[in-house]
Amino acid sequence: YxxxxxxxxxxxxSSLYANPAGQAFLHNGWHMGISSMTxxxxxxxxxxxxxxxxxxxxxxxxxxFKGEAFAPVVPSLDVTxxxxxxxxxxxxxxxxxxxxxxxxxxxxxxxxxxxxxGIAAFGAQNFKNYSVNSYMKxxxxxxxxxxxxxxxxxxxxxxxxGIRGVYATCNYNGFVDDVTVNGTATGTELSLNCDQVxxxxxxxxxxxxxxxxxxxxxxxxxxxxxxxxxxxxxxxxAAAAFAADPTHLLSQFADGKKIAEDMPALLTxxxxxxxxxxxxxxxAWHYYFDKSATxxxxxxxxxxxxxxxxxxxxxxxxxFCKWITASCSWQNTSYGLTDAYMSDVSFNxxxxxxxxxIRIHPTKLFNIDLGYMxxxxxxxxxxxxxxxxxxIDRYSRTNDVxxxxxxxxx
Length: 410
What we know:
Blueprint: E1 29-48, E2 62-83, E3 86-103, H1 108-122, E4 130-154, E5 157-181, E6 184-185, E7 190-209, E8 215-222, E9 228-235, H2 237-243, E10 258-260, E11 266-273, E12 279-288, E13 305-318, E14 324-337, E15 351-363, E16 366-377, E17 380-386, E18 389-409
Antiparallel strand pairs: 1-2, 1-18, 2-3, 3-4, 4-5, 5-6, 5-7, 7-8, 7-9, 8-11, 9-10, 11-12, 12-13, 13-14, 14-15, 15-16, 16-18, 17-18
């Protein structure tokens, strides 16, 4: 994927996830691919809030909360067996989740809990200053095992039907301690360690059509994946009290609670054109049905989503010599999220990504993929009105990924 984003109408083993119907046009026999990506990411929220200036350790109305994420190994496995008109395939890999991200100095929403508690204890007029130590780490991994079959209806037309099982595992671990208000230790401690586990099933349909030797056309539809994450939470007494309030930030982590976290249905359409044998020009469009995927807190409704997510992709691939194929590709991701959706606990930013890579061909039945991707995110600023003044959050992200893959056939 890193080497060439626009896999939606491509016919290679590495395009199994994006274009399973295209597998029917591989030669008879076994095809297997093993790959791994390494990702370095950051998420930064610069929050300006008048009450933050009362923090004795950082007496500045603007505080920066930066999360660092490093995933050294993100593996995937693809296997296909072709026999005449039939193709049986399987894909195993991560299909969702943002990996692990650690905020060494916590989140602005956690610091705001300290201010909220101080005002409740002393009153707004008598609340003079505070200090706090906080930390937050979140992990999200959605593992998917996809199996299916492709049938070549005609020599130039194939259809696919498959199913994917999705196992979701998440953890949120954080604390707020060493709290002082007006110079006095309060003894207040907020701690949370929440494990979430859920399972869902995704039916998948695909089609691939070859009108002539120059064109490849394909489409895929993934149905909505219904997932309910069940919480297994360990909380301090003060945190549990907050979690008991259904309107509070911590309520989504209440022990035993089931959290709706559906994966939206997805429609992809792709085309590839080869003016000459070793040159491929490709384009694709992805459409996510976000508003039909139930989310905790009704975050799938129009109050949180203006329009469903769309992606536009384009790429070029050229086998300029017997041993090497070079490629570059671009992807634009456009989220339709309102200001109400954005929070330091969960936010997404529209972006443009660029990918570069090569495929090395030591033999006809073995090749090596090398790829690199960089994402340019569109920073976003959100203003909220509170009783203590306007709070301004500026969201930004970075993302760099490298990958390697080995593809075999026999």
